[in-house]
Prior knowledge:
Shape: globular
Number of strands: 11
Distance between the termini: 47 Å
Number of helices: 24
Helix content: 55-70%
Strand content: 5-15%
Amino acid sequence: MRIKDLLNAKAIDLDGRAASKTEAIDRLIDLMKGTGNIANSAEYRKAVFAREEAGSTGIGEGVAIPHAKTKAVLKPGLSAMVVKNGVDFDSLDGAPAKLFFLIAAPDTEENVHLDVLGRLSVLLMDESFREKLIGAKNSAEFIRIVDEAEAAKFNEPVAQVEGKSGGYEILAVTACPTGIAHTYMAAEALENKAKQMGVSIKVETDGSGGAKNVLSAEEIKNAKCIIIAADKKVEMARFDGKKVIQAKVADGIHKPGELIEKAMSGNAPVYRHDYSSSEKAEEGGESIGRKIYKHLMNGVSHMLPFVIGGGILIALAFLFDNFEINPSNFGSNTPLAAFLMKIGKYAFGFMLPVLAGYIAMSIGDRPALALGFVGGMIASEGGAGFLGALAAGFIAGYVIVFLRKLLDKLPKSLEGTKPVLFYPLIGILCIGLVMVYIVNPPMAAFNTWISSALGSMSGTSKLVLGLILGGMMSIDFGGPINKAAYLFGTASLATGQYEIMAAVMVGGMVPPIAIALATVFFKNRFTEKERQSGITNFIMGLSFITEGAIPFAAADPLRVIPSCAIGSATAGALSMLFGCTLRAPHGGIFVFPVVGHPLMYVIALLAGSVVGMLLLAVLKKPLNNQKGE
């Protein structure tokens, strides 16, 4: 939904008057009432102020975006106000707010307010855009400025392809395992590069909140080529017969120009969707290693919500429990703790079946899903654990591939029977036999050995483990090495090795924070745009979103990556040295209350971040010196 479509000229006050935060919000609500979007202004006002109590919506740089999602709203809308003298709005940077947008969203399944909030936040990062809005002479000019900036930033509307009834020259799909940062960074990089090259493009983002900007059948039909920049399974059947380029999501971020040039050249291979030949390399397709990685990441992306949700609930159970009641039952002594523990364990129990199921589905499509679930459950119950579930997923997928070929010679009259009888019956029996008699025994023994080995680690060996895991989190900032360390950390939760997860998370938090600190204390090493991004990196780092470091690493990898890796390794080693533990697999500072030895954990984080900052300051030369050279 476009921002301009939600703005009403009657709901814009360019000469606002407000002496306080309350007066500013009340004025914005009055403007909203005039649009007819609100059924009950008192109820809506209550919702807006309730949101403010949870945390100020003054995002800094003189901007505030109060908002509320409530049944009091009839339809989505925006009101806007400029207070040129500024108002104290408890903003994050402490500066007075001059530019206000109030978002009204109805209480429906669609999170309109989040989409609008995201778009506004991106646009308002541009200082010139903010100044233009504050200087607008009338409401029409205000809306026009928003419309032009939105069209330029998000490539809307797009010039139509010459000689066609309408559409885009290139379509793209971006997706990463977690669907948080890489997905959208790749989309923005492709859109920006396409704009520079004069190429019309539409990008579908398959993020954690589901697919956005979904490609239509008509758009796919008219497009010259489709770029798939993804590290997990993407629905490909719709692209059958089209020219398709398949690449890593990192290529979408770092090599958008190369991908677009290849797409426009007409030399891209034609994609043929054929389930029975899923193991054949597609024309100009991917390597075996790349395919295995994508299958694995498809399982991981579906597993993470269960791990994160369940893990944090289990961690909260320990936080709200009383150890002295019954030390042997710690985590379930009080009713609240017992409830949280029970729900968390239910969610956590799905981790291995879901991992195996979606790895299998990535390989053998829907018929393999049931086999993967069963194989994952057998791995979980049989002690094979995380590694057993990985094996179950791949075995289940290839069992279906084999059965397709084996049953391909059956009469066509039995075609409809295969997915409802032959695949599940024969497939589940096969995966059961393989897991129980071949995979589980050695995997269970290996897991027992690993648990014993980790449990016996102390002193130098434990410090080295933390050093390695912390450093791995900063090598590729959300890529395969980072994911390997993170998966090792989450798998360790199931075996009670909570120190490992602590070292992994603190290592992942360091890079964005180290960069943000460097942009504050060593400003002359960074451009103005990089310094502005540094503020965002504080938030991303504290939220355990390592990907905030990617733009800086892409611009200067030889200096940024070693600096961050050493800082992260320092934090991971100190976390292990201090004996810090973490029962939650995600959350950043929001789960610090459940960290074992939280003060020492904060010290480890600060130490690693400062080390990374100082190394950046030493390795990166001041910009004026670089220019002189």
